[in-house]
Design brief:
six-stranded parallel sheet, 7 helices, alpha/beta, single chain, six-stranded mixed sheet, about 30% helix, Rossmann fold
């Protein structure tokens, strides 16, 4: 546990948001009579129950942590009342201070994360589009001149590392969408094999039909399941153009289609004949 001041805690919250971590923020919004901390006290609660900051310690804090872990697992936020011996309704803490506290517990978790392997022309367009539609994204490249934070000011993370080693350094989970657009077939294959070992829900890889078949065959030789439904290769929807801009649009559109479960059909077709 760390206490720290408000500035440090807000900085830590920004770091956690940027990294894509799941956490809850507990804030004392009302404190009546005798209470451990006054309104404005804040505490970060991690999924496993560890904390940063404090809302007063003791039995109250224990109850807040329990509720925060539960709400975080449910993906909900809630204002919770705690009775500290005042005889009011709310969660009973067993304390006899004679106070009453209301704590706002907010759950912070991303509903999707985009990891772009390759910071070339298509990768940059993907990053721009991801930022436009509000997707948290990470850029990964093994070229130092390409994997630079200043080139991707909106990124949650920019990683300069060998592609094979990058997976162990990234917060990839079941809500992650991986797009492989590196500058070489060898690296695409490396990323594909690494991606198949993750819990990502979507694995997209750019390339011609011949290239995709060759890299899938190589992955199969390594014992990987290349019939995995998560694989979208060649990546993107068929829009009829091959410019980096339109490739980026086609990939983002496919990701949104997969995420929402949409059909990708023309909207006008959903209302029947109209002319």
């Amino acid at each position: 546990m760390t206490s720290g001041n408000s500035t440090d805690l807000f900085k830590r919250i920004a770091e956690l948001r940027c990294s894509g971590a799941c956490f809850a923020l507990a804030t004392v919004v009302k404190a009546e009579d005798s209470t451990p901390r006054s309104a404005g006290a804040r505490m970060i609660v991690h999924p496993e129950g560890s904390i940063e900051g404090t809302v007063g310690g003791g039995a109250l804090e224990k109850k807040v942590v329990e509720d925060a872990v539960r709400l975080l697992s449910e993906g909900r936020s809630e204002a919770v009342e705690y009775d500290l011996g005042k005889g009011r309704d709310g969660v009973q803490t067993g304390m006899i201070c004679g106070g009453h506290v209301q704590v706002l517990i907010e759950s912070f978790q991303l509903d999707m994360k985009l990891f772009i392997f390759g910071a070339g022309h298509v990768g940059r367009k993907l990053a721009e589009l991801a930022q436009t539609v509000g997707m948290a994204y990470w850029i990964i490249d093994n070229r130092e001149d390409f994997a630079r934070s200043e080139l991707f000011p909106g990124a949650s993370g920019v990683l300069h590392a060998e592609f094979a080693e990058s997976f162990a350094k990234l917060p990839i989970d079941e809500k992650s969408y991986l797009v492989i657009v590196t500058y070489g077939h060898h690296y695409d294959g490396t990323c594909l094999q690494g991606a198949l070992k993750t819990d990502a829900c979507y694995i997209g890889m750019i390339g011609s039909k011949r290239k995709v078949e060759a890299l899938l065959a190589a992955a199969a030789e390594k014992g990987l399941n290349v019939d995995d439904e998560r694989i979208y290769a060649p990546v993107g929807l068929q829009l009829g153009d091959s410019s980096p801009e339109e490739i980026g649009v086609s990939i983002i559109a496919e990701i949104l289609k997969v995420k929402s479960g949409g059909s990708g059909e023309h909207m006008r077709n959903t209302i029947g004949k109209h002319r």
